[in-house]
Amino acid sequence: MKQISVVGAGTMGRGIAYTVALSGFNVNLHDIDESNLNQAKTSIEELLQKSVDKGFIEVEKAEAAKNHLTYENNLQQAVREADAVIEAVLEEIPLKIEVFQKLDRYCPEHTILATNTSTLSPTEIGASTNRPEKVIAMHFFNPVHKMKLIEIIKGLDTSEETVRIVQGLGEKMNKETVEVNEFPGFVTSRMNCLIGNEAMNMYMEGVASAEDIDKALKLGLNHPMGPLELADLVGLDSRLRNMNYLYKTLGEKYRPCPLLIKYVKAGKVGRKSGSGFYEYR
Predict the structure, then answer these.
(1) Is residue 280 situated within a structural domain?
(2) Rounded to an integer, what distance in angstroms lies between the CA atom of residue 246 and that of residue 151?
(3) Which pLDDT tens digit goes with each residue over 30-80?
(4) 91: annotated binding-site residue?
(5) 96: annotated binding-site residue?
(6) Is 142 flagged in the annotation as binding?
(7) Is residue 212 part of a domain?
(8) Are residues 123 and 25 in the same domain?
């Protein structure tokens, strides 16, 4: 496995591309929006330079990673030689299915197709292709270059060979992997959405300030980041999509906090908008 394509140049896509390139693979990062690709290139190169400046990686390794990366806004061109594709588009099942049907047409027969989803069904996505045995979920965490875990979720028809290859890919990226049976929310998202939603309800009810809720969980429960600042980092719009899906599939306890719905309607979606539970301007 030498050539990896990443589809979607948002926060997760560029983080995955950075990490895969540092691991020695050739990476083709795709996005239909040329400006997103330009922003991703700037972001990745800035992160490489910061990693060198802080002594995390050597100059030679950063330069090699930069040379491993190409940026392409034509999907067919981006994936035509891929050994594996990692999709990182919006968490919407119709969009992911549309992307996977195109990947199925454009990719070589041997190509493994992975979705970076935090809640959605790799079985449903794989069933839309002619290669469901090669479709799998690889759930990365933000920021990708720092977070050690990849959740690997196999669909109903995913082959054991595909699981083994993806586990090996994770090891080459210096990640730990866990294998999860498909169920809405998997392990981490299911727990994280509950904690975050309850924190939002407590904030709405006036139990404590956002700062003190986050501080309590960081210092009292040893969480590295508070649930409200984490939701801002993930994006409140993304969190709401996850909550709506879990509410639909798992029931009442995942009903989204009314304040989350209100914030998203107001365009206050966290760090990327400059405002959420905190201000970032």
Answers:
(1) no
(2) 18
(3) 999 999 999 999 999 999 999 999 999 999 999 999 999 999 999 999 999
(4) yes
(5) yes
(6) yes
(7) yes
(8) yes
